[in-house]
Amino acid sequence: MDVILIPGFWLDASSWERVTPLIEEAGHRVNPLTLPGLESPDADRSDIGLRDHIDAVAEIIDGYPADAQLVLVAHSGGGAIAHGVADARPDRIARVVYVDAGPLGDGNAVNDQLPVVDGEIPLPAWSVFDDADLVDLDDELRAQFRERAIPEPKGVAYDPIALGDERRYDVPITIIASEFPSAALVEWIAADSPFTRELAQVKQVDYVDLPTGHWPQFTKPVQLGQAIAAAIG
């Protein structure tokens, strides 16, 4: 399989560096991405929106041979990008693996509550996050994360996603649940929670529990790599 890794907010391709060896050892080819505007702290990201990131990944997919078996792995806010790509290229994606993330419904934004500074979204103070986000993210890991963090383009967080091809529901997905257990997702689906309505439409969903905080690529990278490899099969 060719595995395309989509980072979450504030992160570039290097954020997967402790995860990729486990996927490669399972025999897969791995392509970790740095999305537009995340190339460096000085990059121009003023006009970059969610659709730009979706289109950038779709263009990368178009560069693979037509018979390539492609898997998208997406962390956090990258999940919306992966779902947008599944909508844009449903016949090219063999599976989407969501890492503490899930599919975003049409017309919704990833997070339009994040604090904007000078037209972009720098990594906020830790107090902005819930305690569950920060499980296992000790002081050393927090310092490393903040040192590598790149401001996120505002549009990626604030733009509503536009979806139009219901074949996206045919793409099998795996959710690696870290911040909260998969049993909670199942309960929210049963309760028709707005948060999980798009997920409820997906025809084939597998769940994997990896208890930790919101950044398992930092807190439990070996276990995450193993879980991704197992999900790909």
From TrEMBL:
| UniProt domain AB hydrolase-1: residue ranges | 3-223
Q: InterPro entries from the xrefs?
A: AB_hydrolase_1, AB_hydrolase_fold, Sec-Metab_Biosynth_Hydrolase
Protein's name according to its UniProt entry = Alpha/beta hydrolase
Specify the domain of life of the species encoding this protein: Bacteria
Q: Which UniProt keywords apply?
A: Hydrolase
Any one GO MF annotation of this record: hydrolase activity
The answer, when asked if Cell membrane is one of the entry's keywords, is no
